[in-house]
Amino acid sequence: MKHNLQFDFLVDKEKNTLTITREFAANRQLVWDCYTKSELLDQWFAPQPLTTKTKSMDFSEGGHWHYAMVEPNGTEYWGLTEYLTIKPIDYYIALDAFSNDKGEINPELPRAKWNVTFTDKGHNAIVETIVTYNSLADLEAVINMGMKDGLTSTLERLDSLLLTINKG
């Protein structure tokens, strides 16, 4: 079930950024909803075989999403996203961090700024995500953690969810 949808994963070690451009076979409003509503994020925002569970979410400027990616054996990896700027269905800017189940940020692990932009491409939507790290060491750490494979698997799950929603 491969569609010829755009997927670019570019690493810029000069600027400590990842630029991920991904096309989805759905309209921009639906893709925006999948990125910004916890009940939809919980259905796709983790690489296989992990699942996602939201502890709390307030998608507003100054708000947050506190969630865990959960392994089949129950091991939880907590994250905290803090929303800085939101322009509905066009873009949002957020700070993303590893945390514990109380939402306390882990200073030992990389924190990044995510600038996520949504545009139309015919009947499809393009999501461009620019992830900026504080240092080259942080960028290399997430690459070594498997960011590209994990993100590829995660975005394929969104493809599957969009197919289900579009049929519904």
H/E element string? EEHHEEEEEEHH
| CATH homology superfamily of the domain at 47-106 | START domain
CATH domain class name of the domain at 47-106: Alpha Beta
Distance between the termini: 19 Å
Q: Report the C-alpha radius of gyration, rounded.
A: 15 Å
Mean pLDDT: 95
> What percentage of residues falls in helices of 4 or more residues?
25-40%
Examine the secondary-structure arrangement and name the CATH architecture of the domain at 47-106: 2-Layer Sandwich
Q: Main beta sheet: strand number and arrangement? A: 8 strands, antiparallel
Strand content: 35-45%
Counting H and I runs of at least 4 residues, what is the number of helices? 4
Low-confidence stretches: none
Could you characterize what this model shows?
There is one protein chain. Helices cover 26% and strands 41% of the residues. With 168 residues, the chain is an alpha+beta fold. Strands 1-2-8-7-6-5-4-3 form an eight-stranded antiparallel sheet.
Summarize this entry quickly.
By secondary structure, the protein is an alpha+beta fold. Helix content is 26%, strand content 41%. The protein has a domain at 47-106: START domain (Alpha-D-Glucose-1,6-Bisphosphate, Chain A, domain 4), CATH 3.30.530.20.
Topology at a glance:
Blueprint: E1 7-12, E2 17-24, H1 28-36, H2 38-41, E3 51-57, E4 64-70, E5 76-87, E6 91-99, E7 112-121, E8 124-133, H3 136-144, H4 147-167
Antiparallel strand pairs: 1-2, 2-8, 3-4, 4-5, 5-6, 6-7, 7-8
